[in-house]
Design goal:
Chain lengths: 402, 85
């Protein structure tokens, strides 16, 4: 029972800005998916996304506005909420005792696209000096570190949607090495024509134009993923530091494992199951001791099938409640798994499993006990969060209440 | 070309580099070091590049480090503008 403890949460999601607003939207089953408004999507195969449209003025320092991409502004808003929630006071930790590890995917695509357009159409003199770092994939870690004086270990994990868990695991290693406090998780966002085209090329995006029908993981009508922006940042402290500071405890990171899939076409089993088993083993828990699973819920039928079969094999068919609140936000790239982790902690605290929305006919009703459109109230003490990243990344994390 | 004013400089600073909290750019800032106004060399680099485009002048490469205050930067800019005439 001595794993690191989450003592602060900052959430920014398509269906709610701030932990409180997000959590109540989730319990109401309110989706943040819609037809893209950030740019005109009519010429593209995929048109639905989960946008976070928040005015950064007053929420992000004015000096940072010209030098930040949209995703970094969202990350700064979430980081401030998490640190305030944890009642962090830089004076309480040694100068290099607190650091930042976040997950990212492509970096500040929208900023980068704007400056590349300026370069091509007008010339180098028209490119912002801040293009030197505003697009850069580890920029969120750097900006959070600078703004809050978190001068200890810093890093960025790029494992697509698995990154949100991998970052927390890396932060945990820094705590084991002597850091006292880490800001970790991920906030991402890449809704501009350049990144949109790249993501469509993956072949995994849903081309269904109805926001209520586009993202249907574990449904017979599943047609692919929907991408959103946002995520969550968590304040993670060693059990000892958390005890000493005496703040609120959302829960403990009890176990984690990451695996990599075999080469496509090799005929070997996907490696998600091994990640689940290793995470349970580290937590010292048997499958029947897990109270709820937050699924990766790809929405790509073949990947959903792999996940459903894996869960049925490890836990027994229909033996554990499975939920996918990301049906209300879309998949948030580097931010997605961190938001699922935050959601799992909120669920443990409230004793409520959040709903999975929009599902009509389940694809695997015999394998999965999929939580429906209404939240399910029951006492919860453990949760398993699963995440898979494009390219073969599998991650599993077990959290324990309190 | 008309004179480049402090009012115009403030507009471009806000646009290119933002505004530090607690600093009043509309106050008497002519002799305030840029550093005290919250602007680092990158912020000035970004602003100067915009001024160069707007005024069709080329400032010295080291202007960002040499011109420590708005008054010094304005003098440099207006000197170049007068050479254009």
């Amino acid at each position: 029972m001595s794993g690191p403890v989450v003592t602060g949460l900052g959430v920014i999601a398509p269906n709610g800005v701030g932990t409180g607003e997000y959590w109540s939207a989730v319990l109401r089953g309110e989706s943040g998916l819609g037809v893209l408004t950030r740019f005109d999507p009519s010429g593209y195969a995929a048109r639905v996304a989960g946008e976070v449209n928040v005015d950064p003025a007053g929420r992000v320092p004015g000096r940072l506005l010209p030098q930040t991409d949209h995703m970094t502004r969202l990350a700064l808003i979430a980081a401030e909420e998490a640190l305030t929630d944890a009642r962090f006071d830089p004076a309480e930790v040694p100068e290099y005792g607190a650091g930042v590890v976040t997950a990212a995917s492509g970096g500040g695509f929208e900023f980068g696209q704007r400056e590349l357009e300026a370069l091509w159409s007008k010339g180098g003199a028209y490119v912002s000096a801040y293009q030197s770092f505003a697009w850069f994939y580890p920029v969120n870690t750097g900006q959070i570190s600078i703004r809050h004086g978190l001068r200890g270990a810093g890093g960025t994990l790029v494992t697509e949607q698995a990154g949100g868990l991998d970052a927390v695991a890396k932060a945990r290693r820094h705590l084991r090495d002597g850091a006292e406090l880490m800001v970790t998780g991920g906030v991402d966002g890449s809704l501009c024509p350049w990144s949109w085209l790249c993501m469509i090329r993956s072949g995994r995006l849903s081309t269904v134009a109805d926001p209520r029908r586009a993202f249907l993981p574990f449904d017979r009508g599943a047609s692919g993923s929907v991408i959103g922006e946002g995520g969550a940042l968590l304040v993670l402290e060693s059990a000892e530091a958390a005890r000493r500071r005496g703040g609120h405890r959302y829960g403990e990171i009890a176990g984690y494992a990451a695996t990599f899939d075999p080469r496509p076409g090799s005929g070997r089993e996907p490696a998600l199951g091994r990640a689940v088993e290793a995470a349970l083993a580290e937590a010292g828990l048997r499958p029947e001791q897990i109270d709820v699973v937050f699924a990766d819920a790809s929405g790509v039928p073949e990947l959903d099938r792999v996940e459903a079969r894996t869960l049925a094999r490890v836990f027994g068919a229909g033996a554990v409640p499975v939920t996918a609140p990301k049906t209300m936000t879309g998949r948030l790239l580097g931010g997605g798994a961190a938001l699922d982790l935050a959601t799992a902690l909120l669920a443990l605290e409230a004793g409520v499993i959040p709903p999975t929305v929009h599902i009509g006919q389940q694809a695997e009703p015999d394998l999965l006990d999929l939580v429906g459109p209404e939240p399910r109230e029951l006492p919860l003490s453990t949760a398993l969060v699963l995440a898979r990243g494009f390219g073969g990344f599998n991650s599993a994390m077990v959290v324990r209440r309190g | 070309m008309t004179e480049f004013t402090i009012e115009r400089l403030v507009v471009l600073l806000r646009e290119c580099a933002g505004e530090e909290e607690g600093v009043d750019l509309d106050g008497a800032i002519l002799d305030e070091p840029f550093e005290d106004l919250g602007y680092d060399s990158l912020a000035l680099f970004n602003t100067v590049s915009r001024i160069e485009r707007e005024c069709s002048v080329q400032l010295a490469e080291d202007v960002v480090t040499e011109a420590k205050t708005p008054r010094a930067l304005l003098a440099e800019i207006n000197d170049r503008i007068s050479q254009l005439a």
